[in-house]
Design a protein that fits this description.
Layout lengths: L1 E5 L8 H15 L4 E5 L2 H9 L5 E3 L15 E5 L8 H7 L1 E5 L12 E3 L23 E7 L8 H4 L1 H7 L2 E3 L6 H7 L5 E3 L4 H7 E6 L2 H9 L3 E6 L5 H9 L3 E4 L5 H4 L23
Length: 279
């Protein structure tokens, strides 16, 4: 069996989940079944909405060996601290691990996977649904991420009021917070509309790395609004995809997103060798 462990949290986003869904769909085309492992019930619901039904919940990364059997394959996509038994994971299973930092190397005999431009084991997992470029509806859509537990949007209310963007809610936004931020945007969209809106919007502004890649591949003009310092390998990835980067809540935002030089029609090419996971 093959398992994809995507760490999910109500205080984080679902980038790992969306990568996992893309991975599982591609391996299904190669007649390989993969089970998705997540950490909360809501993430399991979203996975099924995105087309993956074989999902198991577990508390933390430390519980993985309660599910796997000797000889199974495991891909870990998590920023959690690796468990004490990670050495035994690598001994008993074939382990792949998505790097969290530039230049991260294997600890034991796991195979490292790099979700950015890399000469070895580059793997950018994007659902093929985004490959089909749709006609665009003229709008600027903002997707912060699936959770805003620190209320960053609300702390920068004036910035968002001035931007006159439409807002795509995250899956972990609670009702009270939705009501607090709805007046900052020209229109509010529900989280369940994610795929349709990312594919059909003319311009996407987001603080999610996964979302900005999906939007770019879909043919949108894209802006990454960084809420914290990007790693160099992340910057190089965004630059390679002609994605504009704005650092922080710049009041010149409307000028920054008006760049007409970004090609919104050309299909962006990206390559992931899924045969790496079959040997």
């Amino acid at each position: 069996m093959f398992y994809y462990y995507a760490h999910t949290s109500h205080r984080g986003n679902l980038d790992t989940l969306r990568r996992g869904v893309a991975f599982i769909k591609e391996l299904a085309k190669l007649n390989r079944k993969v089970t998705l492992l997540v950490n909360d019930f809501r993430a399991g619901i979203v996975a099924k909405e995105l087309g993956v039904s074989d999902v198991l919940n577990m508390e933390t990364i430390s519980d993985i060996d309660l599910v796997l059997e000797y000889g199974d394959k495991l891909l870990i996509d998590s920023s959690e601290e690796l468990p004490l038994q990670f050495a035994s994971f690598c001994r008993d299973f074939t382990v792949f691990r998505v790097a969290q930092t530039c230049g991260e190397i294997a600890i034991h005999n796991e195979t490292m996977i790099y979700p950015w431009i890399s000469e070895v084991n580059q793997a950018i997992f994007i659902d093929k649904a985004y490959d089909e470029v749709l006609p665009k509806i003229e709008r600027t859509l903002y997707f912060f991420g699936d959770s805003d537990s620190q209320k960053i949007i609300l702390q920068n209310a004036e910035f968002f009021k001035a931007s006159k963007m439409e807002m795509l809610l995250g899956h972990y936004f609670y009702l009270q917070y939705e009501s607090e931020i709805e007046l900052l945007f020209s229109k509010i969209h529900e989280a369940e509309e994610y795929t349709e809106l990312i594919r059909s919007s003319s311009h996407i502004v987001t603080s999610s790395l996964q979302c900005v890649l999906e939007a770019r591949i879909s043919g949108a003009k894209t802006t990454f609004l960084a809420t914290s310092e990007l790693q160099q390998c992340q910057k190089e990835l965004l630059e390679a995809y002609s994605i504009k980067i704005i650092n922080g809540f710049n009041q010149n935002f409307s000028t920054n997103i008006s760049d007409k030089n970004i090609d919104t029609v050309r299909k962006v090419q990206y390559k992931t060798d899924y045969n790496l996971f079959l040997s």
